[in-house]
Amino acid sequence: MNEVICQLYDRTSLRAFSRREIPPEDKNTILEAACMAPTAGNQQLYTILDITDPTLKDRLSETCDHQPFIAQAKLVLIFLADFQKWYDIFTEAGCRPRKPGYGDFLLAVDDALIAAQNAVTAAESLGLGSCYIGDVMENYEVHRDMLHLPQYVFPAAMVVFGYPKEGLTRKKPARVAQKHIVHENTYRRMDGAELREMMARRSEPKGFEGWVEAFYNRKYNSDFSREMSRSAAAFLEQYAK
Ligand SMILES: Cc1cc2nc3c(=O)[nH]c(=O)nc-3n(C[C@H](O)[C@H](O)[C@H](O)COP(=O)(O)O)c2cc1C
Question: Is residue 140 a contact partner of residue 232, using CB atoms and an 8 Å limit?
């Protein structure tokens, strides 16, 4: 296996950072790598917020579901799905653009996430760990005001970076078998037996029902998950206006 593949296989999320600062040239490399990502029509439908203000970091560590390690990270980047700038470019050029639609929004989200993953991969190659923070999609109104987001801009993802805390060992959580993820040609809805087989390893020793119920309550049925859906709906409502 080559080095790139090894790093992709081995990468795990990092949530405990050492105090070591990231050299400015490495930070610049990470940001450049993000900007080199594939992008729909070469439009770069994203803006990256480099959060350097410690007060903002502290506030984000609270507004993003109370995750204190966000404030300890040495680099905090928010990847904004940004259709605003193209709307403004079209307007500036006298195009009288139609209102951006949901397709434009989804394309911008695609772009933002692909750029984010380029940053993650670049950071990994430089010895830096990272963790996505999906909770930045919560509290839309708070984040809009805090980060001055205009109508067609949505925080698709936040990623926090740093060097691993000394002595930390990290085990990558196992993924399900590839045969359940890769379907040939058309979608194959999995039946109960296959769903159970797919989750068998993860649900030990609790068993399928016990493990799924606990997971359901911790994630899908949680306050943060409900808030994320409310928040995204609030964004989309004002986007569609
Ligand atoms: C879109 C997305 C959102 C995530 N949000 C969070 C988060 O808010 N807090 C957190 O600690 N980890 C978060 N993670 C990290 C996942 O929990 C992690 O990737 C997953 O458990 C698999 O572990 P691994 O990255 O170590 O392989 C997120 C990951 C993704 C891709």
Answer: yes
Q: Which atom of ligand 1 approaches the CA of 15 most closely?
A: 11
Strands 46-50 and 75-82: antiparallel
pLDDT of the residue at 170 = 83
Buried/exposed 205-217: b ≥16 CB within 10 Å, e otherwise: eeebeebbeeeee
**DSSP, residue by residue, 64-80:** TTS-THHHH-SEEEEEE
Q: Is the pLDDT of residue 142 over 90?
A: yes
The H-assigned helical ranges of the chain are 3-10, 24-35, 54-63, 69-72, 84-92, 102-125, 140-147, 178-181, 192-203, 208-218, 223-240
236: CA distance to ligand 1 center in Å?
24
In tens, the pLDDT along 49-61 reads: 999 999 999 999 9
Q: 0.85 cut: is pTM over it?
A: yes
Amino acid at 76: V
- For the chain, the first-to-last Cα distance in angstroms comes to 51
Question: What pLDDT does 98 receive?
Answer: 97
Residue-averaged pLDDT of the chain: 97
Nearest CA to ligand 1 atom 1: 134
